[in-house]
Amino acid sequence: MGATAVFTIGELSRRTGLPVKTIRFYSDEGLLPPTERTDAGYRLYDAHALARLELVRTLRELGLGLADVARALEREASVRDLAVRHVEALDEQIRRLRLRRAVLRAVAKRDSELEEVKLMNRLAQMSDEERKRLVDEFWAEMTEGLDVDPEFYERMGSAKPELPDDPSPEQLEAWLEFAELVQDPEFRRLIRGMSESHAADRSAGASTEVTQAQRDNWFAWSADARSAIDAGLGPDSPQGRELADTIAAASAGPDDDPADPAFRRALADKFASGGDPRAERYWQLLAIINGWPPIPSAQPEVGFMLAALRS
């Protein structure tokens, strides 16, 4: 056929593989105006219209809406600008699809009931800002009206959950558990109680240095407890008693007697509150969500130190 050849809709369909119904729809929408019409009113299209139809199909296959396709054809917007905008929309859609996939994987793994599925989906769809605000509100409530060490609590609240765009099932499950944990009334009472105890010690005057000594030495004490456990030694062994002496001496204030059993029992009670497994779980979950190195449980070491102080 020559350059002046024209095609019916049926011939366009055979050449492009598009259904006649689709081509007629594009034509009715103004995306593919006919080149001319027969005396009987049938639409005819030339080679330029054929090329235009191929472009329409390409843009539609890339996901552009009819309005954007029309703007591109009329040169109201460049194909490049439309592509950039569409890439941004696709990125957001892909992010949501990945989250949805992760939720479904977690649902399948946990064999969740309907109400839990709805909650999991809502939590998973939270934005980074919403997740950070959840943590900020949690720590604000934990310290409201209390005279606490601002530097210490600022460090505690500065670590925020940052779920990646394509979270693993483990990361999503960790986030769901973390969100449930910080909203759990029992956990909130635990942390609030620790904050109140901290504020009371702070107001007593001499406790700040004691608390700092405990922070500075905690990992060394845990390592000593682990060494004793690995060696098969009990809390009432010489090594256990030596560790208890060390902890009591470092933790005693000016008016405390490190050898006093009552002081040691009170100290053990305070350690038990601070070493609660749920408080430890808070940081373990943050590590999973943010891709930090795993935080192993220190519960055996904590238990050893508590028993050593009480023995």
TrEMBL record:
InterPro entries listed in its UniProt record: DNA-bd_dom_put_sf (IPR009061), MerR-type_HTH_dom (IPR000551), MerR_fam (IPR047057)
Alphabetically ordered keywords of this record: DNA-binding
Transmembrane segments: none
Molecular function as annotated in GO: DNA binding; DNA-binding transcription factor activity
HTH merR-type domain ranges (all copies): 6-75
Name the UniProt record assigns to this protein: MerR family transcriptional regulator
Originating species: Amycolatopsis carbonis
Source organism phylogeny: Bacteria, Bacillati, Actinomycetota, Actinomycetes, Pseudonocardiales
